[in-house]
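Appendix C: a fully annotated inverse folding record. The material below is reproduced so that readers can follow the format used throughout the book. The structure is listed first as tokens, followed by the designed sequence.
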């Protein structure tokens, strides 16, 4: 049997398949998710069911989104899991999560995510935050560090700002490559994301916050004054109480919100 085969399935690199096989780690992850009966649970990439099965044992029926046709087929015919699953054989990047959101039951989303698409997938999932109670994801440790980073650190950037604006970010545990089959080349970590019920300092347009982050972090070593030359002049930056000689990693979330709101107020309508 090939070293990349697990439970008779040949792991597919293009689908980011690294299957969890360490039962102690699996239990700790399920404890962190804390699934309860009656909750509206949805798993991204159930694979061979390592997390799916213990979650169903605790919470009952769940929905899953799985892109790999063979794995979706296996789940559909699984002797225990099949009757507890609603299977969406689809790309999670394109999946409309509001389609499975019931009015009084916000979604609890979880998954050991395919690392090759984790950042776009996180951005896609954040767009459904109003329908979400919480999310638990296995990601590359480095991605969790970037999500949770505050200003004045090397890992602080667009992912930190866009995630923290929308959610509380709680790193839960770190996991080494040996918990997976095949083992990934990087360390992993579980993160809990809890969407803010209310945003204390709301931005007028989320796309403007994204735009200022892209502008700032496109060249991390440039000062804000230089990066924003074409977008916001230095006097305007200073009028917002921001020292324009700082670098993007020294600017706080609230300051990025101020820059984004300035842009919304001063950009022409066609931009
Ligand atoms: N949950 C399983 C586990 O922990 O052992 C498998 C995790 S594996 C890292 C990622 C899973 O996501 C695989 O089952 C893979 O087929 C699936 N997947 C990959 N890309 C996907 C996509 N775009 N949409 C939905 N599922 C995807």
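Designed amino acids, in order:
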């Amino acid at each position: 049997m090939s070293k990349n085969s697990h439970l008779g399935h040949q792991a597919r690199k293009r689908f980011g398949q690294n299957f969890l096989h360490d039962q102690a780690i699996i239990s700790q992850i399920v404890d962190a998710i804390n699934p309860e009966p009656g909750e509206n649970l949805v798993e991204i990439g159930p694979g061979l069911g390592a997390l799916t099965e213990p979650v169903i044992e605790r919470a009952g029926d769940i929905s899953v989104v799985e892109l790999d046709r063979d794995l979706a087929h296996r789940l559909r015919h699984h002797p225990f899991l099949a009757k507890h699953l609603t299977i969406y054989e689809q790309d999670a990047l394109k999946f409309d999560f509001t389609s499975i959101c019931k009015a009084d039951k916000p979604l609890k989303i979880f998954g050991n995510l395919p690392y090759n698409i984790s950042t776009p997938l996180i951005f896609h999932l954040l767009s459904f935050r109003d329908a979400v109670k919480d999310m638990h994801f296995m990601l590359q440790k480095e991605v969790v560090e970037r999500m949770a980073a505050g200003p004045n650190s090397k890992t602080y950037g667009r992912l930190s700002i866009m995630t923290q604006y929308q959610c509380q970010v709680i790193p839960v545990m770190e996991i080494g490559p040996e918990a997976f089959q095949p083992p990934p080349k990087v360390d992993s970590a579980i993160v809990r994301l809890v969407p803010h019920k209310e945003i204390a300092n709301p931005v007028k347009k989320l796309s403007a916050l994204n735009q200022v982050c892209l502008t700032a972090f496109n060249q991390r070593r440039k000062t804000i004054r230089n990066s924003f030359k074409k977008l916001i002049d230095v006097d305007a930056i200073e009028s917002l109480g921001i020292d324009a000689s700082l670098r993007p990693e020294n600017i706080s979330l609230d300051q990025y919100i101020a820059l984004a709101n300035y842009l919304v107020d001063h950009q022409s309508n066609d931009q």
